[in-house]
Design goal:
MerR-type_HTH_dom (chains A, B); DNA-binding; 6 helices; Multidrug-efflux Transporter Regulator, Chain: A, Domain 2; cytoplasm (chains A, B); 3% strand; 141 residues; Cu(I)-responsive transcriptional regulator (chains A, B); disordered C terminus; two-stranded antiparallel ribbon; 2 domains; DNA-bd_dom_put_sf (chains A, B); transcription (chains A, B); homodimer; mainly alpha
Chain lengths: 141, 141
Amino acid sequence: MNIGEASKASGVSSKMIRYYEQIGLIHPTARSENNYRLYTEDEVHVLRFIRRARSLGFSLEETQKLLALWQDKARESAAVKEVATQHIADLERRIAEMQGMVKTLKHLSHCCSGDGRPDCPILEDLAASAAPPVKPTRRKH
Amino acid sequence: MNIGEASKASGVSSKMIRYYEQIGLIHPTARSENNYRLYTEDEVHVLRFIRRARSLGFSLEETQKLLALWQDKARESAAVKEVATQHIADLERRIAEMQGMVKTLKHLSHCCSGDGRPDCPILEDLAASAAPPVKPTRRKH
DNA sequence: CTTGACCTTCCCATGATGGGAAGCCCTATC
DNA sequence: GATAGGGCTTCCCATCATGGGAAGGTCAAG
């Protein structure tokens, strides 16, 4: 089938399919005489695997690891679990970070009259930052 | 003071200060005879405001709005609250999304033996995606 | 006079995705 | 046969916020 059908069948856009091929996440497929990419059911299955991994928040790099493990019949499930565990930890860190923001913002918002007057505790907080030097937290590469 | 000092005093890297100037988030500053950027206390204060807004997760676009409101003595606090409320909603949406991922992943991980055997419910889930077409959710622009 | 620490501008990279142009191929319709 | 439309190809650009690094100017201390 052509890339458009593979896209519909997998839920991955044509653009992304080409990109995944370009970065080596998936193998180049066969081509028709017109130079159109041709996809088999197996290849569509791989695309669905990728889409599912992405929907669980795995990066393309992690997805590539999972894909390799999936295709390695002799894999150890411990390796898969390791990838998942790391990802869970990363998600939880980011969730906690955002929850901290929400907590602060809700407090400030609650204290803000939100009417026609100019006084605003939200702006006061932003303006009052007395402690300048905070090492920014780094993400996973 | 020079950009390096302003950076230390505000917690914003020199790179970012120049970038903020380039995109018009902050006004171009005075220059010394050597063409070095010169910063006043007020300008450092603005940089700290930006850093604080960023640390609460506001985008640079939102930060610009907040900055404009901060500098507008006749602002209505309702306008500020509106920006904050939208941002809270966005954060909460993203948190919920990630919590959903964590929930699924924890369940799958829990079911995975994580030893030397190849059987793995995590991979089975990824491979089993029976429902292809899911419209991806869009973020705020 | 050299060294090192600043500063300047300019270009490139990240991650994952979309937009769009220019051009080829095929089919259906007039 | 000509044309219109839709699908495919490659290539380039944009996003968002940030960092890395090169090439070169400036300044102060040794």
